Automatic annotation (TrEMBL):
Species whose genome carries this gene: Microbacterium protaetiae
Domain ABC transporter: 4-223
Boundaries of the shown chain within the full protein: 8 to 230 of 263
Keywords: ATP-binding, Nucleotide-binding, Transport
Lineage, broadest ranks: Bacteria, Bacillati, Actinomycetota, Actinomycetes, Micrococcales
Protein name: ABC transporter ATP-binding protein
Gene Ontology molecular function: ATP binding; ATP hydrolysis activity
Amino acid sequence: EYDFVVEDVSKVFVGATRVQALSDIDLKLKRGSFTCIVGPSGCGKSTLLRIIGELETATKGHVEINVPESRVPRSAFVFQEHGVFPWFTVLQNVAFGQQMAAVGKKEREQNARRWIAEVGLSGFENAYPHQLSGGMRQRIAIARAFATGSPVLLMDEPLGALDAQTRMLMQEQLLHLWEIEHKTVVLVTHAIEEALLLGDQIVVMSARPGRIKEIIDVPFGRP
Ligand code: ADP
Ligand code: ADP
């Protein structure tokens, strides 16, 4: 039932100074759920996301992962910016994420076209990212993450760099994509309205050291 069970996790970065980024984190991620992590800058949101995504290890505690390993990486990532390759077209960018999957070129391209259509970029397959708006570039990154076939989608402020109106459109679009394919999603944001709109579980964090202040379940909250 749970893809991830985070138990008593702490993270300390030791460099010029010692930074306790996370302290005693307990969190469960249900398969197919949409979790939003919200809190002030520096409270450890990205660090927690990176630990869930196996990009970082905990200093203390344990993360139980029940997502089967396959040819496809467990997690696909979407970051705030710089998530697309400028020298690739839209189609190449979206198809690229599937290199790991054991499918043929033709199938990869078909799948990429499908996700390009789902994010509303049909007609732009052969465009390069610099020819498109910021919102459209983020849609490329999101389409690619879905196209990978990874069962877990981890997003760090994916809409953070967008203007308010584009951001609202993209929130709708994220929900639409998640309804098509119920991946286990974790989205980091500093915007509580965004968390309330998107999440069925909202993790509210506080800083110094990064702790979970409360976890809000929104079972019927979605409009
Ligand atoms: P948030 O995503 O909530 O803004 P982060 O997880 O990025 O917070 O950072 C939490 C704390 O850990 C911050 O004080 C940050 O400076 C520190 N930190 C993050 N990554 C590193 C790192 N690689 N080395 C040292 N300190 C780090
Ligand atoms: P922004 O992120 O700048 O607010 P959007 O991603 O919401 O823009 O794009 C709004 C619409 O404007 C797109 O769906 C597209 O139809 C059109 N558009 C934006 N940039 C271009 C472009 N370079 N070429 C053609 N149409 C574009």
